[in-house]
């Protein structure tokens, strides 16, 4: 009886509450936009709860690709903040209350969790605790949480397809702006290296960081282009994105970015070219052509004008030596996350009056989490690569069986995602020599998608009969 009364009156109560809120806000801000904004709130809540994966994916896209900085007109709308609230709300609702999202565990998540714990311990033991806490509070805890959110929420072929297309499209937008800035000499470093948002202090104002953001979606763009069975629009997105991302990375003149792009193409080529001698020859020629096309020799730092080992390379060697010294002094915890820069003076063998970034994923992790943290980090990478290769091989084996027996293949979005995450991982590992990625988004997004693909394969392929004629 009580339940019936409450159920009958819940809609009038909600309407009355909404009218009260509108009335109060109208008193404070007498503007018609207030009524429109309040009226849209229920629709926004419904969208958030009905599309939790989309909310999480959009938050990751805005946080990593910095879309609100690429297009400064969006900056004051606080879109990343709104998306973070929507993502957390949807995640708590479906994981903690409705239980519609199934949580699971895998060895890769265990290794990642151990690394997260080591980072937190390193914050407590860090030399400059305020800097470490600030980075963790503003960036890293979101990365940690969203790693699990992406892994648990990416469940269907539709989710994998949406992730691949949205990541590629976001990279395309950044690439177009980068090429526009390069053509119009906007925000160039050293007169030749393109950046984005340097005047507003964007992360993309560093050409190496911009190269990292451009390199990451390349693996997905190539996958959309080369995977059979993708729709026309998806193929077109891949066809447009690949050259734009390629030339945008070239415009950054980043060695790490070039190595990453070469590695991404190399993964696809290695799995398709039967003659490995031919593959190696093509790879060597491609590397030489890319180096020349990028104009590395014309760079003010690290160019041909510098005799012997150039200043850019020497700066990295000094930074890596400093990183090793930090790890020797703090072998179990390192100096703390985001503390390399502030500790550079105390460990650098060559002080030129300025602190410098480490410009290496491996040495960055070594310096800021110690030898123990680096060992766990390398373990994560090895686990992820093995899992990605195993999942892709299983998908392609099933694809081959379906082709031989004349059955309908798997949904191509699964195959495309499996290829993309493997190529992206290899590109990340190779580019990690020159790009600092240990505590930024790419590795963790890829890790989550690797786990999600492996989970999908474990759930579906073993139980899928050979005579199956339907897509999953």
Q: Could you characterize what this model shows?
A:
The protein has one domain (105-460). The relative contact order is 0.11. 73% of the residues lie in helices and 0% in strands. It has helices at residues 2-28, 32-50, 52-65, 67-70, 79-97, 107-125, 129-153, 157-183, 207-226, 232-252, 255-272, 276-294, 311-329, 340-347, 361-405, 412-431, 441-460. Mean pLDDT is 84; it is low at 1-11, 302-309 and 464-472. The protein is an all-alpha fold.
Mean pLDDT level: 84
Distance between the termini: 45 Å
Structural class: mainly alpha
Q: How many beta-strand segments?
A: 0
Can you tell me the number of structural domains?
Answer: 1
> What are the segments in which pLDDT stays under 50 over at least 5 consecutive residues?
1-11, 302-309, 464-472
State the helicity in percent bands.
over 70%
Radius of gyration: 24 Å
The percentage of residues in β strands lies in under 5%
User: What would the principal axes of the Cα set say about the shape?
Assistant: globular
Give a quick account of the main beta sheet: strands, pairing sense, barrel closure: none
* SSE topology string: HHHHHHHHHHHHHHHHH
Q: How many H/I helical runs?
A: 17
């Amino acid at each position: 009886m009580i339940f019936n009364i409450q159920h009958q009156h819940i809609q009038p109560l909600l309407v009355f509450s909404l009218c009260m809120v509108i009335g109060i806000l109208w008193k404070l801000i007498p503007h018609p936009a207030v009524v429109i904004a309040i009226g849209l709130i229920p629709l926004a809540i419904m969208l958030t709860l009905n599309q939790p994966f989309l909310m999480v994916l959009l938050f990751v896209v805005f946080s990593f690709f910095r879309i609100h900085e690429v297009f400064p007109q969006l900056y004051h709308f606080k879109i990343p903040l709104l998306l973070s609230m929507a993502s957390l709300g949807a995640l708590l609702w479906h994981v903690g209350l409705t239980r519609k999202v199934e949580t699971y565990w895998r060895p890769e998540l265990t290794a990642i969790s151990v690394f997260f714990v080591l980072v937190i311990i390193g914050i407590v033991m860090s030399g400059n605790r305020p800097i470490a806490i600030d980075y963790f509070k503003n960036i890293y805890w979101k990365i940690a949480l969203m790693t699990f959110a992406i892994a648990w929420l990416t469940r269907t072929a539709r989710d994998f397809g949406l992730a691949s297309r949205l990541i590629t499209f976001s990279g395309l937008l950044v690439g177009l702006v980068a090429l526009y800035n390069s053509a119009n000499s906007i925000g160039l470093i050293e007169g030749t290296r393109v950046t984005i948002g340097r005047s507003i202090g964007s992360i993309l104002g560093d050409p190496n960081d911009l190269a990292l953001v451009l390199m990451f979606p390349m693996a997905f763009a190539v996958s959309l282009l080369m995977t059979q069975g993708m729709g026309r629009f998806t193929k077109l997105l891949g066809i447009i994105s690949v050259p734009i991302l390629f030339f945008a990375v070239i415009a950054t003149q980043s060695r790490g970015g070039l190595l990453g792009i070469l590695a991404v193409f190399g993964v696809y080529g290695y799995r398709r070219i039967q003659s490995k001698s031919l593959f190696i020859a093509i790879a060597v020629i491609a590397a030489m052509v890319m180096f020349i096309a990028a104009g590395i020799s014309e760079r003010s730092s690290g160019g041909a004008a510098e005799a012997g080992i150039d200043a850019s390379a020497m700066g990295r060697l000094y930074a890596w030596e400093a990183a090793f010294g930090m790890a020797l002094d703090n072998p179990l915890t390192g100096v703390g996350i985001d503390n390399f820069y502030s500790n550079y003076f105390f460990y650098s063998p060559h002080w030129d009056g300025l602190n410098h970034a480490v410009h290496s994923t491996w040495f960055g992790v070594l310096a800021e989490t110690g030898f123990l943290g680096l060992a766990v980090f390398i373990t994560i990478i090895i686990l992820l690569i093995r899992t990605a290769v195993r999942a892709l091989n299983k998908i392609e084996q099933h694809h081959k069986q379906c082709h031989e027996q004349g059955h309908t293949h798997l949904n191509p979005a699964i195959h495309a995602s499996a290829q993309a995450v493997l190529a992206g991982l290899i590109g990340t590992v190779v580019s990690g020599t020159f790009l600092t990625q240990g505590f930024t988004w790419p590795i963790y997004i890829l890790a989550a998608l690797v786990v999600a693909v492996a989970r999908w394969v474990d759930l579906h392929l073993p139980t899928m009969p050979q005579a199956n004629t339907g897509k999953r």
